[in-house]
Amino acid sequence: MLIFSKVKGLTVWKAASAAPDVHLNFMYSSFQESKSKPLRGYAASAERSASRLAENMAKPFSYIRDLNAAQKHCLQKFINLCMIDGKKNKSQKIISNTLCRLAGYGDVLTFIMKAIDNVKPIIEVRRRSASGSTQLVPSIISRNRQETLAIRWIVEAAIKRRNTKKSMSLDQCLLAELIDAFQKIGTVRKRRDDLHKLAESNRGFAHYRWW
Fold first, then answer.
1. Could you tell me which residue ranges the Small ribosomal subunit protein uS7 domain spans (predicted)?
2. 34, 56, 64, 93, 115 from 43: Cα distances, Å
3. Which of 48, 86, 168, 173 has the most CB atoms within 10 Å of its CB?
4. Cα separation, 150 vs 155, whole angstroms
């Protein structure tokens, strides 16, 4: 078989002088083989890339299409508030890593929503000039702003923790803040309680609210 393969081209070439169709068929089949090889390689490479993409997408966002509107909105807020200098891909990667780390705590989105609910402020204070002085006027916050403030505080606390603990990545710090918020402890929960106490102490100026 080895000897035949070495002299195969020569044998066909000699036969081609008597029968040109044999040579043409051999050349055409050789061309088809050389043409199909890169296509098969490209198809295999594309299949591997698709499988890797499917695996990566399945880790944190496998059920993104099954989320309700509130959960999608919450996740999008996290991505936008983590974004710095318009680097949304980097922000998405941080959130993805955080979701992967939260996988060991049960349902990820339920955990996050519960953590946010635990640190949501329901009232805030605004400065208003009255009688030549500035007063802190308490006011009720809308649900959308409550969620935005809670997420912003969690992200800010994670960044502050990252600046003090250089050995931790931002997704690790974000995970730690979410766990603290879920357990109703930590700096974010304290910030929320302090804001409520400040609003309570200034409730006498609530009649100045015009908005």
1. 69-203
2. 15, 20, 28, 28, 45
3. 173
4. 9
Same domain, 11 and 115: no
Note down the domain range covering 173: 66-208
Instruction: Mark whether 28 and 121 lie in a shared domain.
Output: no
Q: Tell me the average pLDDT across 108-114.
A: 90
Out of 54-68, 102-116, 125-139, 183-197, the most confident range is: 183-197
For residue 186, which phi and psi values (nearest 5 degrees)? Answer: 100, 180
* Closest to 147 in 3D by CA, of 108, 116, 180, 187: 116
| Mean of all residue pLDDT scores within the chain | 77
User: What is the number of structural domains in the chain?
Assistant: 2
Same domain, 35 and 83: no
- Angle between helix 108-119 and 187-201 (nearest 10): 30
Which two three-digit tokens encode residue 195?
A: 């804001």
